[in-house]
Write a structure and sequence with these properties.
With 776 residues, this protein is α+β, with helices and mostly antiparallel strands. The protein has 21 helices and 27 strands. β4 and β5 form a beta hairpin.
């Protein structure tokens, strides 16, 4: 908190004590730390909200009380504010503030006097800063430092620290004793020239190449063996770990831990000789060995184990605590539990583990391990051997996969397999047979008699005889029979069997399959029934069609003979009236009689078209090769009168021959060309194209014109009977022509469709199969 001013702020002539009080109050509440004003008598005259929260006492309750009453040392508090009145200011005055609930807070008070405009001291501003957490942290640092020193002093390994220049910053007694120096002789000295200045083979090397100092030079942990020199000039082998000290993201030094490994190395040399012999034996037997030091978690691997994992033998194996990455999570959990149980109870283990090799490949090992105790009977290490069983596991998995695939295939195909041991009368079923027979494997008697019990009673003798004869005659059998389910349902199965015999012809074992063909049999039965029903319906429909055709023939005859006679009479009498009474009829009467004649003639034409449409569907087809181009030219010659006095250009493109009924094809082109000529009438220059294009197994013929066209929204109406897109006043016709075209083309196995745009013409397409087939 900023120290309060010793003098009050300047005031205007009109300001008084109220302005000063308001200013003072504003200063007090602006502080986030506890702040009070104290009178010369040591009484609190005002406080801020932070003081209320720190003491747990309301503002009005605090005002007027003695400042010293709220501290654990009231006398010391009184001395503090008395010192302020005497000296004008106090800085970082330590006190302990007591909250109403008993909580204590360590605080530092900063205080100064404040005066009126005449310079008289009015009171003291006092602000507190809570340093409770700071004091705790400092105490913890001291305690940690003391603990670290105890650890250093108690450690059996030599431990010393290095700064970035390689000077010793601390050293423990064990390190000084191992090196033969006093602690004071090492502190502050550069350690490399003092006791570490040669390689393991005795050759000197510069300090920049010193492996111990790589920790603070490169910022990485470095482990290794090297030579240290004692004060008396003797040397000894050490194993060391040099760890960088990181502060604020920067390396500020290193901690080195070392031990004398001279005796260990001698033992290791002897051990290495034994291990070489063991490694050779393991190589021959394809066994890998390992052990883990329980004290250091260091791990030893044999050469075979390196080869199993694909690791570089020049590198040390991972520590036990780092070995999790060498196994799948499930296998690591099993191995960890086995090692823990071996250490705790001494129980050896033998487990299969899935390992993760270099590069991520997986493999399998059979691992055996046991606990080794030291001379005192304490757990020392766990050792064991491993065998690569990847090939065996792969083969087992292939077998399981094959069995799963077979089971899945059997399930999908509803096909199960079985075998019967004829010596012991033991029947073995695959899972699918249990599903087919709908039997619980736990409740099945697993014998030939139990199998017969699942067969429909009416089929048991037949199945039993078939099997018995097959065994007796040394021939396979193939039989379809029924199964009777518990709920009365019947299933159909196709069973095949083959029996194997010994050298003397005695039956040993029968194997076979059971195929659930229920759906197939039911489907076949349904198809047979459907065919019978269909044949019956076809016969019925044929009879009905024949009767309908007969009725149609009768209707056609009636239309041809009965309707034409009255029409001819109406037309004839109308003509007589026009000719005989022309002079007595006015113009309107003559027009009406002409309308009668036009409609009777149109009715006659409509009757002819209906009869033609009817005959088209019933007419026998006489198929043969047709020169379509010649057919079109002949049709155009017949229609030439329809084009008289008009500018009509007809283009006949190359047209492939067709295999069709010539009379029917002529009717198709008559209708299509008549339409083209009719609907191009409004054009001053009519253009009609007859052409063809190849299709997929068919030929596509078309007639295109530049006439009035049509709206494609109504294209589906073009080929219906009596369907017209134009009025009779615009274009004459009965609306049956394109319907006849569709019926003829459909009977030939083709298709028809149309394309057009209003005012731009139309194209009518039809197809005929290239092969010589047709559909009646």
């Amino acid at each position: 908190m900023t120290r309060p001013p010793e003098k009050a702020p300047p005031s205007s002539p009109s300001s008084g004590h109220e302005d000063v009080a308001q200013y003072t109050r504003s200063l007090i509440e602006a502080s986030l730390d506890p702040l009070v004003t104290i009178s010369a008598q040591g009484k609190i005259t005002d406080v801020n909200q932070a003081t209320v929260e720190a003491t747990g006492v309301a503002r009005q309750a605090l005002i007027g009380t003695d400042f010293s009453d709220y501290f654990t040392e009231p006398d010391k508090a009184r001395q503090g504010y008395q010192q302020v009145f005497a000296e004008g200011v106090v800085t970082n005055y330590p006190l302990t503030l007591r909250h109403r609930n008993g909580h204590l807070s360590d605080v530092l008070y900063n205080a100064s006097v404040y005066r009126d405009p005449a310079g008289r001291v009015l009171g003291v501003f006092a602000a507190a800063r809570d340093i409770t957490e700071l004091n705790k942290a400092q105490a913890e640092v001291v305690q940690l430092s003391q603990r670290n020193q105890l650890i250093l002093n108690a450690a059996g390994e030599g431990i010393y620290g290095l700064d970035p220049e390689g000077r010793c910053t601390f050293v423990n007694p064990a390190a000084a004793q191992l090196l033969g120096f006093g602690v004071d002789e090492i502190l502050g000295q550069k350690t490399h020239p003092l006791f570490h200045h040669t390689t393991a083979d005795g050759h000197p090397y510069p300090e920049s190449e010193c492996p111990v100092q790589e920790a603070y030079i490169q910022g990485v942990v470095h482990r290794g063996n090297d030579v240290y020199w004692r004060k008396d000039g003797s040397s000894f082998q050490v194993g060391f770990v040099s760890t960088p000290i990181q502060e604020g993201g920067h390396t500020t030094g290193a901690v080195v831990v070392f031990r004398d490994i001279t005796a260990i190395q001698r033992a290791q040399e002897e051990l290495q000789r034994s291990e070489r012999s063991l490694a050779e034996a393991q190589r021959i037997a394809h066994l890998g060995s390992w052990h883990v030091d329980l004290a250091t978690t260091e791990v030893y691997w044999s050469q075979v184990l390196y080869e199993m994992y694909g690791f570089d033998p020049a590198l040390p194996p991972p520590l036990l605590t780092e070995s999790q990455k060498l196994f799948t999570p499930e296998s690591w959990a099993r191995l960890s539990a086995s090692i823990a149980r071996a250490v705790e109870t001494g129980t050896p283990y033998e487990i299969e583990l899935e390992m993760v090799k270099t590069g991520g490949d997986h493999g399998w090992m059979l691992a055996r391990g046991e606990l080794v105790r030291d001379a005192g009977g304490n757990p020392s290490r766990v050792q064991g051997v491993v065998m690569d069983i990847t090939t065996r596991k792969q083969a087992e998995e292939e077998v399981r996969s094959s069995e799963r695939s077979l089971a899945e295939a059997q399930r999908m195909a509803h096909l199960g397999n079985w075998s019967l041991d004829l010596i012991h009368n033991v029947l073995t079923w695959s899972d699918e047979i249990y599903r087919i027979f709908e039997i619980d494997p736990k409740q099945f008697g697993a014998s030939y008699e139990a199998f017969l019990h699942g067969i429909h009673p009416d089929d048991r003798d037949r199945v039993n005889n078939a099997y018995t004869e097959s065994v007796a005659n040394h021939t396979p059998y193939n039989i379809v029979h029924r199964l009777l389910m518990n709920d009365g349902r019947v299933k159909y199965v196709n069973e095949r069997c083959k029996t194997y015999y010994d050298d003397e012809g005695k039956p040993l074992r029968s194997v076979g399959t059971v195929h659930d063909i229920t759906e197939q049999v039911l489907a076949e039965n349904a198809i047979k029934q459907l065919n019978r029903d269909l044949e019956r319906r076809v016969a019925q429909r044929t009879q009905e069609l024949q009767e309908a055709n007969a009725e149609l023939e009768s209707f056609a005859y009636s239309v041809s003979h009965d309707l034409r006679v009255p029409l001819r009479a109406i037309d004839g009498f109308s003509q007589i009236v026009l000719e005989e009474y022309a002079t007595t009829l006015d113009a309107e009467g003559q027009r009406l009689l002409n309308v009668v004649r036009d409609n009777t003639q149109r009715m006659a034409q409509l009757i002819d078209d209906i009869l033609s449409f009817s005959r088209t569907g019933r007419q026998e087809m006489r198929l043969g090769a047709i020169d379509m181009a010649a057919l079109v030219r002949g049709t155009l010659a017949e229609l030439a009168p329809n084009m008289a006095d008009r500018q009509v250009e007809v283009e006949i493109q190359p047209l492939p021959s067709a295999h069709a009924d010539r009379a029917m094809m002529e009717r198709v082109f008559v209708n299509l060309l008549t339409n083209a000529i009719k609907f191009t009438a409004p054009k001053a220059q009519a253009h009609i194209v007859v052409g063809a294009t190849p299709g997929e197994g068919e030929t596509i013929y078309f007639v295109r014109d530049n006439g009035v066209g049509f709206d494609m929204r109504y294209a589906d109406k073009l080929f219906g009977v009596f369907q017209r897109l134009h009025s009779i006043e615009e274009f004459e016709g009965t609306g049956i022509g394109l319907a006849i075209v569709k019926r003829v083309v459909t009977r030939h196995g083709g298709r028809v469709w149309a394309e057009g745009r209003v005012g731009e013409g139309a194209t009518i397409y039809f197809t005929l199969p290239i092969e010589e087939t047709h559909h009646e």
